[in-house]
Amino acid sequence: MTEPAIPLVRVAMAPEEVLWPLLREVLYSGQIGEGATVAEFESRFADNFKLPRAFSFHSGTAALHCALVLAGVRHGDEVISTPMTAEPTNLAILHAGGRVVWADVDPCSGNMDPESIAARITPRTRAILVVHYGGLPVRLAEIQAIAARHGIPVIEDCAHALGARYNGQAIGTLAEFGMYSLQAIKHMTTVDGGMLTMRDSDLVTRTKTFRWFGMERGVDRSKVDITEVGYKYHMNNVTAAIGLAQLTIIDDLIGRHKANGRWFDTTLPAIAGIEVARFDPAADPSYWFYTLLSDDSAAVLARLAERGISASKLHRPNNQHSIFADAARELPGLDAFYRRMLHIPCGWWVGDLERERIADALRAG
Ligand SMILES: Cc1ncc(COP(=O)(O)O)c(C=O)c1O
After folding, report:
1. Does 246 sit in the ligand 1 pocket, CB within 6 Å?
2. Tell me, what's the pLDDT at 218?
3. What is the percent of the chain where pLDDT is above 90?
């Protein structure tokens, strides 16, 4: 008998008895655009994840665009970033008019290498955009020290890392800005959506106007004055209602990602031919997926596929896209990481039996 497939990613949805009443109320309330439900969701999200403040967007990409502009990125400014991420991280830099400058990655984790970041700083560097790839926090203390020496703001792309911590503090709150994606297959979804947190309370009004045509909501439309370009980036009450329902289950889901990740951390290193991604000891990752390294990653992927375990490299290094050709440079750490890495399932749908099955499949090589 073939065993059921174990997917690499899955959509997590709150139970019907929680979700339907919240959705029904909003859908027939006469207020389906941005209103009180969005405000309530932002406030509960901030409380749940211990953020100083949270502003919702219709996507994580929109939230990143906002963070880059608020960080001061203007046409032609350089932003140091990583090629080892999903494309929206770096497209957002182009949306803000910035130029992408690649830092190399640590071949043991796929995360940005602090020394490479330091080497890329120039007088045109306006921001450093770090990605906690796969849910493993970057070496934030070192990166923050480099950024502080040069007075450059850091933006944390936490799309893969909701619920992770660093030095006991919520991921996304250690730098000037933190972005979370609520896209379909992330730890938490509102179908699509994003959240932005930031340290500086003086940026609150600009954040709100940025996401709504450059205008302040609640101000008489016949008197409002647009002073800076804004976008249609806000969240609506319907997706916010889904978010409120999702908050009732998210801690348990993230807890299961973490428990699986820790189990793999202790179980898999004993398997010949397999290494696990290494991370900063100050980090408490939230393991969106789990990253392995092998000299023959193609053979490991094939073996897992034979046993119904979905695994993959998932992303294409962003420097391989023509749109980033201007930023081309040697990235030996990235090349070494990408050749050896593969991602295996680690989320809430991986129970004790499934993770044993994954470990057995890896042992069989
Ligand atoms: C690392 C990373 N950054 C940014 C994004 C963009 O998030 P969203 O899809 O919510 O716009 C994603 C998700 O697709 C991502 O994986």
Report:
1. no
2. 86
3. 97
